[in-house]
Write a structure and sequence with these properties.
The protein is mainly alpha-helical. The chain contains nine helices and no strands.
Length: 309
């Protein structure tokens, strides 16, 4: 309950400022990732192209989903039309689907890199990566279009009820758009972990120079896998509470307050802000790329061939 000495309009302004800053950080962080991968040739790898696709999805969340969600969160400050509900739902669900499909593709990439390193370059090349990205975005776009044209999001936005859209407020939607891909990714990373542990023991017990050389490459791949597994773990931590709430919401006799659901929704959206921070924390070459971009060094000459690692 808001104290009487606090003007509700002041609360609206403060919430808008906070969420606006969250949006700006999300957009700027993912722009850094996108520019880094596109500009620096050393980062032109199949894995980084998948990271690029994920960063584009996160960037679009900041540009397209955040403004609508900000308006719905502070609903007492603004009246919302039914069409806006469908547009918000379309962007929200389609970009969420794109993110999780991109993460599935990344897990497949990591599986071949760690578990089948000898065939990795032949099975996961640029052409295969492009197909993965196109399929991920194609499915996501179809879902987004279906939400608007087929009328999957029905009802009005009174009392912020559009945040509990019909698309996600059932069992089958979350199962196919979240839980099934999440289980597949967890199984793949578990397999990767077991293989990496076995490789580590094998390397530890072998002292020949050729194995040491191979171990260096394997260590880089394991570091990349650890980082991307962290990205997936943070993604699941941010999204699972919301999807659990949505699944049990239709079954609940006393549903949770709308502000609780909106808070969980913002937790899912905040994931788009966290990925660039994870890359910067784990990858020294991303930190180097970020510094060169932020300092404006890349505008002073051609540094696209710079050695980042």
């Amino acid at each position: 309950m808001i104290p009487t000495f606090i003007n509700p309009s002041t609360i609206c302004v403060l919430v808008y400022i906070f969420l606006g800053l969250l949006s700006v950080v999300t957009i700027c962080g993912n722009l850094l990732v996108i520019i880094s991968i596109i500009y620096f040739k050393q980062l032109h790898t199949p894995t980084n192209y998948l990271i690029l696709s994920l960063a584009v999805a996160d960037l679009l969340v900041g540009v397209l989903v955040f403004p609508f969600s900000m308006a719905f969160t502070v609903t007492s400050c603004l009246y919302h039309e039914d069409l806006l509900c469908k547009i918000r739902d379309s962007f929200d669900v389609s970009l969420c689907t794109s993110s999780i499909l991109n993460l599935c593709c990344i897990s497949i990439d990591r599986y071949y890199a760690v578990c089948q390193p000898l065939t990795y370059r032949s099975k996961i090349n640029v052409n295969v990566t492009v197909i993965m990205v196109l399929v991920s975005w194609g499915i996501s776009a179809l879902i987004g279009i279906a939400i608007i044209t087929a009328g999957f999001s029905q009802g009005t936005c009174e009392e912020m009820k559009c945040s509990v859209d019909v698309v996600m407020a059932n069992t089958m939607g979350p199962v196919f758009s979240f839980y099934l891909p999440a289980i597949i990714m967890l199984c793949i990373y578990l397999r990767i972990f077991l293989v990496a542990q076995r490789q580590a023991r094998s390397i530890h017990n072998t002292n020949c120079q050729s194995t040491k050389s191979g171990a260096t490459v394997s260590k880089m791949e394991r570091k990349a896998t650890k980082t991307l597994a962290t990205v997936m773990g943070v993604f699941l931590l941010c999204l699972t509470p919301y999807f659990l709430c949505i699944v049990f919401l239709p079954l609940a006799y006393d549903p949770p307050p709308v502000p609780v659901i909106e808070t969980l929704n913002w937790l899912t959206l905040s994931n788009s802000m966290l990925n660039p921070l994870i890359y910067a924390f784990f990858y020294s070459w991303f930190r180097s790329a970020f510094r060169m971009i932020i300092s404006g060094k890349i505008f002073l000459g051609d540094f696209s061939n710079s050695k980042l690692f």
